[in-house]
Amino acid sequence: MTTQQQSVRDRVVETARSLAPALAERAARHDRENSFPFENYEDLIRAGYHTATVPERLGGMGAGLHDLCLGQEQLGIGDGSTSLGIGMHLSLLGRLAEEDSWPEELWERVCGDVVERGALINSAATEPGMGSPSRGGAPVTTARRVSGGWEISGRKSFTTIAPVATYFIVLAWIEEEERRGSFLVRRDQDGVSVAETWDALGMRATGSHDLVLERVRVPEESYIRPRDSRPAPGPGRAWGALTLGATYLGVAQAARDYAANFARSRTPTGLGRPISELEHVREGIGRMELSIRSARAVLFETARTWQEEPERRDELAPDIAASKYLATNCAVQVTDLAMRLVGGSALSRRFPLERLFRDARAGLYNPPADHETLVLLGRWVLGERPQLR
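The structure assignment produced for this chain is given below.
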């Protein structure tokens, strides 16, 4: 690694680490109120973290996938919801920068808005009736040609950071061409609105509301035509799966730290000493640590290989899928162990464990799903080479 690359990594990690305590202080209130943490995003933008994966030539930090995962882990320790939200913005920009497939003028305009005006972007692909977009279903959202451009109508679900996103990449069915296509839509265009539908068990502060598009007119250049139809090397889900996994590793570490601090300070009168001195408590904390270390080793080595050895990307599909599986299941396991160790007070909403426990469950529903990962791993062992797309 060059001195320049180390400098970028240090900047990403230190910025995230410095922001995490303030995110942690606000997390309980936004979870309880089911409200969106606008102030967290103001902090992220003020610190420049939202530019982490914008190329340096366009004014960003130029961080790679490994760099970003290290930062996302730190944010996840502070607040999983905010880490998840900004991670979707940053992983999308990182993937697009790496693929270099957008029309140059459109790409530079979006990156300029991110750097100069604090713009945020996310994909709007999922729909209630379509299932996962990765499985190739036809969206109900439609795009049809009109004079000067396109008219888009439809409704998208799970649109994370909808309250603050400037841009949405909308997946739509192009009627006259009978195929899917992606369109860049600004939130301030006529006909664009957000229906505040997000009221979930966990990750309650991600603002993953429905995006409603009612005869939205966009110019011709908003249709994102890749400059090169050849697929980018390696699994298409690498950025999303690994940065998401890093967030859940942060959630797991927050739960471990709370349980360890509780054990050191909890001295029951009947025991006369901290419960941290009890063998079964030490074993429980050891189990948490083992789970975190195991998942972390796989995820960060995979991210490092992706960033530093790009020629190997086509072989990384099993590692990427396994990384997401291990990280999200680690968060579920560790938060459960922490709840059991702390005991009845862990159920109280005055303390963070029950929120961390609920947040951890959300990771199981992000792609690739556990069963998909296990099938993919089995197929690789059997001599096939399926990719994650």
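Interim note for the steering committee: The chain is about 50% helix and 15% strand. The mean pLDDT is 95.
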